[in-house]
Amino acid sequence: MALQNTWDLDVFFEGGSHASGFQSYLSEIKNLIASFREKVTTFDKELKDIVEFMEKLDVKIRQAHSFVSCLQAQDTTDLKANTLKFEVTQLSAEFNKALVIMDSKLAEIPETDWNTILKEKEFSEVAYVLDERRMRVKEKLGVEQETLIQGLSVDGYHAWGSLYNSIMNQIQIPYEENGRTQILSVGQAENLTSKPDRDIRQSVSKNLDHAWEQHADLLSSTLNHLAGFRLNVYKARGWNNVLKEPLNINRMKQETLDVMWKVIIDHKQPFADYLKRKASLLGLERLSWYDLKAPLGENTKEYSFDEAAHFIVNQFGTFGEKLSVFTEKAFKHRWIEAENRSGKRSGGFCSNFSESGQSRIFMTFSGSADNVSTLAHELGHAFHHEAIRNVRPLNRAYAMNVAETASTFAEMIVADAALKQATSEQDKLVLLDDKIQRSVAFFMNIHARFLFETQFYEERKNGVVPVNRLNELMEGAQKEAYCGALGEYHPYFWASKLHFYITSVPFYNFPYTFGYLFSLGIYAMALKEGQGFEEKYIALLKDTASMSVEDLAMKHLSVDLTKPDFWEDAIQLAVQDAKQFLAIT
């Protein structure tokens, strides 16, 4: 039976954005928040009940967020979904206000008593997360000020992220094919940048750039106000380093971030050489930005959705049975929205329905090898959700950097297996190129985003950064990150990339690179140990939300992430791919 390429959301709440069951669910959450706030305000010795109440509420709010996000993604014209998003954001803000009160109460407990509490059976397994909450609140403002910030953030912070989504949803990209003009969503248009025909890539890129230029003033205002709100909060708290919050969220030391980037910078030359060689193979002096995803060869294989599913399930099976069986379930039970149609938002994501113990994957599948990689990537996220499904809810909230570990690990399994199965030099070259493109994305594209945001936030401290300066910062960051290897860059990338406007996590960039390199190191170990490694891998995933990344690596891999050794070993796998490409060509 052919697989369906649309997801099933009715299993959660039947009726989409008009589901009466979902409205009842939101009402239930609202009542629970009121009860929770009352409990934490009159804090007593029953900490166990409060923690369990918090976990219950957190699971429900995450479920609501996931449902609304899926509704918005599948149909950008669904105005009711936008209204529901606002309702859920408000509920989250109310919940966070109550959490501020709870955390402040935890901070008031004397150190000796607190250490005794954490040793009790009810709290020992969530000791890390509770202690983390207690320590972080000490670095923030008082309860009254922090609850005010949470309240103001609905319309003064998160609203800017919502505005960006609204702008993007309204953008339509004209595309002419066979004498007929089609109107594409941004996601559909971006998929065409991996087409073999350079005229198509160039034309689509030009139309996309025209859209960014038309909306640049509004988008720059959005970015500036979002950053301004964040910086004002940091200033009030006495935080001078804009990386303090993202590093805390990712449970990661500055030393780890610094050594990771240093190792990458020290090993960029093979990837710069790859870009120059690829340009030569395409008959170009230098690649332009829209050539980065260009396939090598006209007869690049295109996959049907069924072929992609079969391929991924089989390749996952080369790593471990549990990953393969889980993935087959995701396809058969319609956990994936992949239909190539207009009206969908751009990009891809995996959303966890924590209360239901399921995930949903969103993307626009048009048959390219890059689409297959994206699908494998999101399935890696879903497997991570599956691995932690039965741990305490407090120990499920893993950070973005380790989240990207599972996804990029899954990508590598598929890419490596496909490369090994290639029957001709041409097929091998195409697959190797696709694999190296991911390394370029993580080592160069993400690095450019990191450089841009670092510089942008420093300049934003002194006032609004105008469009022309944003373009200069973006292009300068790209030239540095790509080692000057391109002939044409993308100065409006700051406008086109959703990640700069996400309000849940600041600096939505370096965790991707961390996850990629971290997973490369894990993958190298997996290759040595074979299928027996799957259980170790699952054990590592289960711990991703209950310790720092440095402790996680030491416990499961016996490595120190603040030293270059692990990163040097990890990056060599990617460097070998680039060198192999250069040798073949």
From TrEMBL:
The keyword Zinc belongs to this UniProt entry's keyword annotation: yes
Domain Peptidase M3A/M3B catalytic: 192-572
Stretches assigned to the Oligopeptidase F N-terminal domain: 106-170
Cofactor annotation remark: Binds 1 zinc ion.
Highest taxon of the lineage: Bacteria
Keywords, ordered alphabetically: Hydrolase, Metal-binding, Metalloprotease, Protease, Zinc
The keyword rRNA-binding belongs to this UniProt entry's keyword annotation: no
Cofactors required: Zn(2+)
Matches recorded under SUPFAM superfamilies: Metalloproteases ('zincins'), catalytic domain
Family: Belongs to the peptidase M3 family.
PANTHER family per UniProt: CARBOXYPEPTIDASE 1, METAL-DEPENDENT CARBOXYPEPTIDASE
NCBIfam families registered for this protein in UniProt: M3_fam_3
Protein name: M3 family oligoendopeptidase
